[in-house]
Amino acid sequence: MSSRKKSSGGIGRNAVPATPTAVARYFDRLPGGFARCALCHRRCLLSPGSFGACRVRRNAGGTLELPFYGMASAVSIDPIEKKPLYHFLPGSSTYSVGYVGCNLRCPFCQNFSISQSTDAPVQRLDPAGLAESALRASCPSISHTYSEPIVHAEFVEASMRAARAVGLKNVLVTNGCAGADAASSLLSLCDAVNVDIKCWDADFYHDELGGDLETVKAFAETAFRFGTHLEVTTLIVPGKNDDDAQVDSIAAFLASLSPDIPLHISAYRPMYRYAVPATPPRTVRRLVETAKRRLRYVYAGNVSGAPSITECRDCGSVLVSRRGYAVDRSGLAGGRCASCGAVVPMVDLPKEIF
Description:
By secondary structure, the protein is of the alpha/beta class. It is built from 8 helices and 20 strands.
């Protein structure tokens, strides 16, 4: 996931905020005060008083409560390209909100201080206030990002409804490990999503990350079926998922949905519990070329050098050029190529906004 900028203020370091503010939607009551969480693939069985693997959903007498409802660990204004989303409102800013907790245990997590703990300083938000803040900041979208927003599905859904009510777009940056009910509810309100497909090895997903590859695939398929703008990121870790066969399989899966789905192949750097050396740029560039055999739009991430360019597939003109987060979108004209007029596979804003 992308790096984050902490907001100032907040509630401070907290094991559990005082007074839970909401009850979860996705759970089943069981005899003896137990509860079964139904949010994600883990389906945690919670005894009274215990938390799920995500650390943010708690059994209170057989009812699953959300003690971190509306608690944000980070709020900032980011380029939409930072999510990364290259084909959705290119060149715009997005009002970004991060939380605490995660339902995975990735040992290379870049945001482990908020994903693997609930001790980060937080501030309380409400859905309508979040939408108002984004409007005041002149951001056309709100992104739920940084740590895993799915484990806060109820607050994210309420925030997405509030955003849509005032004409804002909704963005989700996620590991995609959501059950079918939660996935459908979230994606029905979502305009764009970037899904991490971390590898194409089901055993590695389960044993190393605590995830489930089939659940992630189903989430991506649901997003595509719902018409949500979909982009995918794969972080390349040397010796783990840096072989051509895995990346080719990811690209083939996406191409079976649409060859126009953008894939971001990003370089890893040592973080959290992994001391594996950083991904060489040449590995990322090789795997980009591998994925391009099946997909039209593949981008290298966390690699310096030449600008990242999107070309018109009809005439070859440059639609968007990116160097870091500096974006030249002069080749776009209201969702069409400015040179030949061809419709391009991007979600664009009216040109007068820029």
